[in-house]
Amino acid sequence: MVSSFDSGLVPELASSISEVIHLFLGSPDAHVKPQFMDAEVQDILTRITGLDLEKVFRPIKQELKPPTYKLMTDAQLKEVTQSAREQAQRLLKMPPVLPERKPINDVLSEDKILEGMDTAKYVFTDITFNIPHRERFIVIREPTGTLRKASWEERQDPHPVFKEENLKVVFVQDHHEDVLDLCQVQFELDSSEYIRVHAATYEDLEKMRKYDLLRSTRPIGGLVWYLKDLCVRPVAPNLFRLLYHPLNLALPAVPLKYPLIYAKRESQRAGYVELALQAYEQTSAESSV
Amino acid sequence: MASLPCDESVYLNMVHLSSFLLKTYHGGHIVIRLAMAGHKQSNRPFYRIVAAYNKRARDSKYIEQLGSYDPLPNIYNEKLVSINSDRIKYWIGCGAHPTKPVAKLLGLAGFFPLHPMTVTETERHRALAEEAAPEDGVKQQEL
Questions:
Q1: Which of the residues A52, A71, A120, A247 has the least number of beta carbons within 10 Å of its own beta carbon?
Q2: In A229-264, which positions are buried (b, 16+ CB within 10 angstroms) versus exposed (e)?
């Protein structure tokens, strides 16, 4: 009764998720959770990302030029493929996952004498050339006379794509990657909006099991990190089937007890994980019979 | 052109920018003021905060633009003001004089201490508003 998997299920994805779980359990003494930017984690995540040259260098929308053909020897072809791989690796550099930034609500001064001066707020922006946008002084003088710093939301208007309804439409059309790219351009890496949109994208991806869409692209590291964080919640049955699919038994498989230990120690949804494990065991028992 | 503007006397600032030919004025000094920004035909003011020679016309050639001020509020009811604090500090350090409206804006921004006229104006505004309100009340009673 092993259901037919689409080719989108990535065996490496499975084994790498298990390796990430390994990392968590491998050092019971370490009280520090592995962070996204650790070397080991990055290594695993790079391996998951894979290096599908076809997909990385797929034609992006640019002006039409007729294709160029070059005549090369085998050795030259090897060199060119190698340099293409290196460039692909650079293109696939993962955007870091940062903790959410703190909201700004500094009040610089309260001047009650200025109350009733004007019905509009004054927004003062500092246009000095060399300061990064985060450190810029954007200061608002309210009609009540309070002088305060502008919050993150006031500094930037969100793109209409990022509202809930529009996100749903976009996901149906399989534009996850574009959404994530737009999101990266639009928002700072640690804004709450960015994290929210990413969370929504990852949830939708795992619901629809569309892992293949993101396979050789930049955000997949973030996706795996998120899945690990989610503690394998509704994905659980699928994920375990991933892990223990007969095809994957060729790879160094994770013994069944690791997810259990993980569930007890780190996961917040221990119940779900155990249920999922039991479901899996039942189905595997049925299939083997 | 190695002479620093700040070494000269306050009223004869030699600006050592070679990018454009500057006329030096006898007894002129540099001011930071608001210049109307070329929307003469429309009924819509927009000001640039500008460092210019005192003798020059208000809207004509200035030395450097230091920001902008939009007196009409936008859809979020905000009046947008941009200030290049780095360059304003430079020009003030070279002896430029800000005019009254610029000083008020910078006081509201927190760059300068609050201008005393801002407070006076607020009080006058409030007094007017209070006079208007009881009058409306009286008129309604009459009706």
A1: A71
A2: ebbbbebbbbbbbbbbbeebeeeeebeeebbeebbe
